C-alpha cells in the first residue's frame, strides 16, 4: 500500500512512496493515458476508449492523495479524478534502474544447459493436462520459463499432435500443411525428411513472422539412433557474449538472410540477425539454421571475416555437448519448443526399422494468453 504522495515539477510528475519505502515517479500524461476509469477504458475488455489526441497537451496533476492505500489524482485542465490501485502502480512502474548490458534476458526466463536440465526435463501427461487446469498451467509455465517441454500419453494417431495445440491455441498452417510428416523419403523437399542427423537449429527462419512454437510427436520409433536433442539458444548466446563480446555484437548487429525454395511455387525469404535484440538490449530471439542460410550481403566488407568467425564460434558452442539435452521419443510422446529460443536437433538413425514423427507449428501468443488466463483465474479464486 502507498503511504505518501507528493506532486512535483509544477504538477507534471508525482512521486509515490510505498509502505516498504519503495519509491517511484510517474508523469501526469502517463497516468492520464493509462487511467483505469470506464470513460478511458472499456470495462468489458480493458481496451482504451480514447486516443492521445483526446488528452490535453498541458495535462497536469492538480491534486494527489493517498486514499485507503491507493492513489487518487485530479487532472487539470479536465478536472477529472481517477483512482489507481497501489499494486497496479507498483507492477507498472517505469522509474527504475536500467541495465546497460546488451542481451539481458527477460523476467521469468531461465537459461539452462545439460548439467541443469538433463535429469529434470519438464513433462506432463496429456490426459492430466486435458482434465486438470493446474497440470496444464504447470506445463505451459515450463514452456514459458525453459522454452521446451515433453508431453506423454498422446494418442498414436495421425494428426493427434494438434490436440496439444487445442489445449492453448491454434495450429499455424504453412506450405507444409496443417501438420507434416517427419520420416525418411525418396527425393525429399527438406533434409528433415531423411535419416541424416540434423544440426541444432530453429525452424523456418525464412518466414516473416517465424512460427514461434513447434511440436514434434512420435507415432512410431523402432530405429537405432534418432534421439532428439534441444539446446537453449539464449544460454549459448550468453556464453558467446561472455567469451567474446565483439562476436556477440556482430551477430546481433548485422542481419543474416534465410531462404527456402523447396518446391516450384514456394519462395520464402527473410532477413533477421542470428541473435535478435530489442531496442533496449533485451534478447528476443535466436535464428540459426545452416540449411537455409542465404549469402550474407548486409555485413560491411571490413566486418565480414570477423562476422564469419563469430558465426563459426556460435556454431561450435551450439554443438558443445555441455549445452545439449538429449532424449528419445517413444510412441505417444511429443515435445514442444519455443522456436524463437530453443534449437532442436536429431541424431542420425539406422536405415532399418521405422521412425515416424509428425510436426506442426503454432504461436506463443495463444500459449501465453491461455497461461495468463489460468493464472489470473486461480489468483482470483484464491482471493
Kindly describe this structure:
This protein is 25% helix and 28% strand. With 383 residues, it is an alpha+beta fold. It has two domains: 2-91, NE0471 N-terminal domain-like (2-Layer Sandwich); 114-374, 4-Layer Sandwich (Double-stranded beta-helix), CATH 3.60.130.10. A six-stranded mixed β-sheet has the order 7-8-18-11-20-9. A four-stranded antiparallel β-sheet has the order 10-19-12-17. A three-stranded antiparallel β-sheet has the order 1-2-3. A hairpin with a 3-residue loop joins strand 5 and strand 6. The radius of gyration is 25 Å and the shape is globular. The protein starts with a strand and ends with a helix. The mean pLDDT is 93.
What's the helix-strand series?
A: EEEHEEEHHEHHEHEEEEHHEEEEHEEEEH
Determine the structural class based on helices, strands and strand pairing.
Answer: alpha+beta
The CATH class assignment of the largest domain is: Alpha Beta
Strand content: 25-35%
What is the topology, as strand order, of the major beta sheet?
7-8-18-11-20-9
Q: Major β-sheet, in short?
A: 6 strands, mixed
Oligomer: single chain
Amino acid at each position: 500500500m502507498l503511504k505518501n504522495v507528493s506532486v512535483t515539477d509544477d504538477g507534471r510528475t508525482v512521486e509515490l512512496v510505498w509502505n516498504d519505502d519503495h519509491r517511484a515517479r510517474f508523469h501526469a500524461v502517463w497516468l492520464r493515458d493509462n487511467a483505469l476509469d470506464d470513460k478511458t477504458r472499456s470495462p468489458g475488455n480493458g481496451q482504451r476508449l480514447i486516443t492521445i489526441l483526446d488528452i490535453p497537451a498541458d495535462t497536469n496533476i492538480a491534486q494527489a492523495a493517498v486514499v485507503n492505500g491507493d492513489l487518487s489524482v485530479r487532472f487539470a485542465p479536465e478536472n477529472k479524478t481517477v483512482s489507481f490501485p497501489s499494486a497496479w502502480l507498483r507492477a507498472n512502474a517505469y522509474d527504475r534502474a536500467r541495465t546497460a548490458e546488451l542481451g539481458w534476458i527477460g523476467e521469468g526466463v531461465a537459461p539452462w544447459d545439460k548439467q541443469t536440465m538433463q535429469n529434470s526435463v519438464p513433462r506432463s501427461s496429456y490426459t492430466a493436462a486435458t482434465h486438470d487446469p493446474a497440470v496444464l498451467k504447470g506445463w505451459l509455465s515450463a514452456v514459458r520459463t525453459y522454452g521446451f517441454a515433453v508431453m506423454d500419453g498422446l494418442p498414436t494417431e495421425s494428426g493427434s499432435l494438434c490436440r496439444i495445440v487445442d489445449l492453448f491455441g491454434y495450429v499455424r498452417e504453412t506450405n507444409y500443411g496443417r501438420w507434416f510428416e517427419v520420416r525418411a523419403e525418396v527425393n525429399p523437399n527438406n533434409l528433415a525428411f531423411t535419416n541424416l542427423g540434423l544440426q541444432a537449429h530453429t525452424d523456418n527462419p525464412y518466414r516473416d513472422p517465424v512460427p514461434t512454437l513447434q511440436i514434434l510427436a512420435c507415432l512410431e520409433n523402432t530405429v537405432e539412433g534418432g534421439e532428439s536433442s534441444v539446446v537453449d539458444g539464449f544460454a549459448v548466446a550468453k556464453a558467446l557474449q561472455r567469451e567474446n563480446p565483439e562476436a556477440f555484437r556482430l551477430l546481433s548487429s548485422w542481419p543474416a538472410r534465410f531462404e527456402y525454395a523447396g518446391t516450384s511455387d514456394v519462395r520464402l525469404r527473410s532477413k533477421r540477425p542470428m541473435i535478435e535484440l530489442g531496442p533496449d538490449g533485451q534478447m528476443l530471439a535466436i535464428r540459426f539454421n545452416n540449411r537455409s542460410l542465404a549469402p550474407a550481403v548486409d555485413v560491411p566488407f571490413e566486418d565480414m571475416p570477423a562476422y564469419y568467425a563469430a558465426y563459426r564460434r556460435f556454431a561450435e558452442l551450439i554443438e558443445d555437448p555441455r549445452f545439449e539435452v538429449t532424449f528419445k521419443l517413444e510412441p505417444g510422446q511429443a515435445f514442444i519448443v519455443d522456436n524463437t529460443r530453443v534449437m532442436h536437433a536429431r541424431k542420425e538413425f539406422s536405415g532399418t526399422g521405422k521412425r515416424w514423427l509428425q510436426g506442426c507449428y503454432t504461436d506463443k501468443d495463444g500459449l501465453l494468453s491461455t497461461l495468463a488466463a489460468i493464472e489470473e483465474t486461480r489468483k482470483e479464486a484464491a482471493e
